[in-house]
Amino acid sequence: MPHVRLAPLLLAFGIASAHAAEPLQAQVDAVIRPLMKEQNIAGMAVAVYANGQSHYFSYGVASKAEGNPVGADTLFEIGSLSKTYTATLAALASAEGKLDLDAPAQRYQSALAGTPLGKVRVLAFGAYSADCLPLQFPDPVQSPAQVLAFFRTWAPRAEPYTQRCYSNPSLGLFGDLAARAQHKPFAELMTRQLLPQMGLQHTYLQVPASAQGLYAQGYDALNRPVRVSPGPYADEAYGIKTNARDLLRYVRLNLQPAELAPALRQAVAITQGGYFQVGAMTQGLGWERYPYPVALDTLVDGNSPRLIREPQATRRLVPALPALPAAWYNKTGSTNGFGAYAAFIPSEGKAIVLLANRNYPNEARVRAAYRILSSLGARE
Predict the structure, then answer these.
(1) 229 assigned to active site
(2) CA distance 238 to 332
(3) Number of domains observed in the structure of the chain
(4) Which of 160, 181, 236, 292 is deepest in the core (most CB within 10 A)?
């Protein structure tokens, strides 16, 4: 589209970029406004990165009761998109020589010694391929002791590395092992090290009192106000709250990591590697990727309930594949009251994030993101 191609030239001559972005506003409006109506979403924040520029678009209200409008600084729960942050934390520990992703889990959690899961390598937990662990912990499992007992008594369902079962317990243990390898609590490593190193000043595990006024209200399937509840491995698996500005920065740093410190740059590459093949999707750590260009139907299927709720045959990639520039990387995330999606294409220099205060179908998120990114044309 002309507004995208002309933007750098306009900036060079000191002309405000807002006018140049107006056609993009119309493109995004044409996708998001009908989506919100169809899915009964109260508020959304959308951010797009293309041709070296960030664009922010806000819709609806953060709270129906208060009527406050959504803005680029409104905080949303991002659910399982948090898993990519956990994966980055673990990958950074690997890059710094503090965590061996190929080591057995029992090296870092001695209580798993002698158990089937204790023998599985750390990386497999980050790729949901250690064994067919469940999507969620059983309801009675709440305390750290109960979590450990759950893992110690786990009866294997498949040979390690042969099935992918999307799992909060699996990814949660991955983050826990990374923290144990560094002898520090996970929350401390995330909030005092990783997030500041990436320049994410408005991204939280626990929203502080000073930012509560920016925290959107989520709405469940019955339009009741709801926010995420604490649970086992909540911080590791689904605990991040952030805004459109910080989330787009995070995704842009995955897209263009050159400005990061060397170890963190290496960590980003580790998360984007390919470790298991699951149909058309290559499983990284946190991120899932597809060769680009990719058909929309392929992305919709790869983010469907089938991939989340059903075991999938997987093939371990040995050696692991490196990060791939010509790829569509993505991750969905949901809590009971929020729905999020992020995607980026390194070879195209494009990225998009969608934040909503309602959990709506992944298919709708993928279709919206695909339509918007496809409207941008090729990178200059």
Answers:
(1) no
(2) 11
(3) 1
(4) 236
In this structure, are residues 286 and 269 in contact, taking their beta carbons and an 8 Å threshold?
Answer: no
Give, in order, the Cα–Cα distances in Å from 169 to each of 218, 246, 261, 335, 336: 24, 27, 31, 16, 18
- Dihedral angle computed from the Cα positions of residues 259, 261, 262 and 264, in that order, rounded to the nearest 10 degrees: -100
Burial class (CB in 10 A: 0-12, 13-18, 19+), 5: middle
Range of the domain at 140: 22-374
CA 329 from centroid of its chain's CA atoms? 10
Q: Is residue 10 part of a domain?
A: no
Quick one: pLDDT at residue 377? 72
State the pLDDT confidence band at 5, using cuts at 50, 70 and 90. very low
* Helical ranges in 201-274 per DSSP H: 234-238, 244-255, 262-271
11 in a structural domain: no
Pick the catalytic residue: 49, 108, 166, 290? Answer: 166
Q: Which residues of 24-56 are buried (b: 16+ CB within 10 A; e: fewer)?
A: beebbeebbeebbeebebbbbbbbbbbbebebb
226 is a domain residue: yes
Of 80, 167, 170, 375, which one is the catalytic site residue? 80
Q: 67: pLDDT confidence band, cut at 50, 70 and 90?
A: very high
Question: E-assigned strands of the chain?
Answer: 43-50, 53-60, 76-77, 163-164, 218-219, 225-226, 241-242, 274-278, 281-283, 288-291, 312-313, 315-321, 327-335, 338-345, 350-356
- Model confidence over 203-215: pLDDT tens digits? 999 999 999 999 9
Q: What is the CATH number of the domain that holds 303?
A: 3.40.710.10
Question: 74's torsion region: left (phi>0), alpha (psi -120 to 50) or beta?
Answer: beta
Which tokens hold the place of 362?
A: 């992944």
166 carries an active-site annotation:
yes
